[in-house]
């Protein structure tokens, strides 16, 4: 259950703009929520709908307990309409059905709200039909278009919407939200360092492949520390079979980067910046193996390896070369 105070922590600018629209009585007929997946667009659209329909709200803050709020939570409010892609796209017939619904009087109030999820997936015909709908706005109608890529929305549609840009989540906010979702402290710290997308982070937390990838990174470090002559053997027999795709290999290198960054943080006594908080003993062993300068060189080598992967250099050759560089 989200409140406007929660949303101000998550997306301060967008939340404040919507709250101000309530205070001034200037709710727009159409909004475009633009931002990456997992940045809170859906949550804010639901909260905004509650603020519109709730009869017991305090300013912009809905009561969260009335019939309207509960029906929005359950997806059963008759005057709130959701449109999501039917397969790979949002089709013209979906917009036509929406328009037909809006010719009827509101069942619970005089207001009607519609939310279009993944608005960038509208077909050309659907977008043109929506444009005609937006060109004749009703004062009692509010639209929210949610998109990850606002640049693909027709300019004529964009010009009729109030644009709200959703910023990537900051690491400490991500970490806190993940912990609230039941993710362990150590995993939350790691995931928040890898992505600012809450949805992606939760999926990674449940992904057995990612859990094994994390283990392999630490095992690689241990091999380089204790049995450097077996480094290439480890890469070819354990590392590469797991990181089969280039995107997977990039993710593994991202985790490896965090380990080398942690070594530098440890050497500089920046405890609060350490990501692998559950691996302190192993991290202490690493800083005995790599100096600050060699850790920095290692970071550069990993970044160069990522660049080569993007340039389609053969992954095995990239990892073998990286391993030799990290052994020095």
UniProtKB/TrEMBL annotation:
Record's keyword annotation contains Lipid metabolism: no
Cited InterPro entries: DNA_pol_HolB (IPR004622), DNA_Rep/Repair_Clamp_Loader (IPR050238), P-loop_NTPase (IPR027417)
Residues forming coiled coils: none
Swiss-Prot/TrEMBL keywords: Nucleotidyltransferase, Transferase
Catalytic activity, EC: 2.7.7.7
SUPFAM superfamilies per the UniProt record, alphabetical: P-loop containing nucleoside triphosphate hydrolases
UniProt-recorded Gene Ontology molecular function terms: DNA-directed DNA polymerase activity
Name assigned to this protein: DNA polymerase III subunit delta
Source species: Halobacillus kuroshimensis
